[in-house]
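Quick one: structure for this chain?
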Amino acid sequence: MSMFKNFNLMDILEFFVVYLILISKNTCSPVDDYETEDQFPVFEFTIPRNDPTYACIKLQTSLFLAVTYPAKIGNEEVLKKVNLSLSDTDISSYTGFCHTDRNQIEIVFLNEWRLEFYFYRTNETYVFNHVVLYYKLDGSLFPYSIHHGAQSEVYDSTFVNSSLYHSYRCNSGVSIDLKEVKIHLLNFKVEAFFDKRPNLPFDEEIVCQSDKEPISTIFKGWLYIIAGMVAFLVIISTLYLYMIHRSHAKKLKREVESDPFEIADIEDNLEESNNYDTIQRTNSSKEKKRLVVRV
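Got it. Here's what it folds into:
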């Protein structure tokens, strides 16, 4: 309890508020095992590449890959993981095609890797639900790899479902699971099946749910902080009042013990009270005797 003697309640409250501010400034939301999406380069792909004025599809995204592969180190086989954040120099080229009911983008990177995205038109919507990846595990990026190349494909897993003449934005990322390889498309924005118009501005955007959630997440976080602060204030206030009451009681006790005149007055009052009781009992006894004699 002695540690609180040099602090008043306002000092404690001020410290707690400053602590909460520091926590809120240093809290961030990491993206899985890698850095935040703002630190990735954003690539822009327009199909057809040689005629961007009248394109059918436009894609903006950052590319991140997490590759898990079997490796043999000595006589032991283990699973290793490599995270790849693609830069401008990693992408060799890209191409694609425009069909009435299907758009495709093909990206070549890391020399012999090839990533294909397929978009399909369905009535008044378009979907992105087909991804193919051809990859090679060379020794420089994937040391001790047992396998050296493979093809992975995922189909009928809807990553984007948007209305025609609308773009689709998801800065927080679209994740594609190809088992051994996981692709994360951060800062993602796309519009497929353009109406062959010039200048290629994105249409009105549809925003993914995960981009809408940070506001509610922050709000919930602050609710928890406020609830914790209220509970903390109740505990501190109760403790502070208890300390004041206890200190006041000790002070009164010391004053009583250290005042000899007050003690003497108390003893005199007790003695006078005892004498008065004795006199009253004596008078009562005499009255009783008189009544007996008269009878």
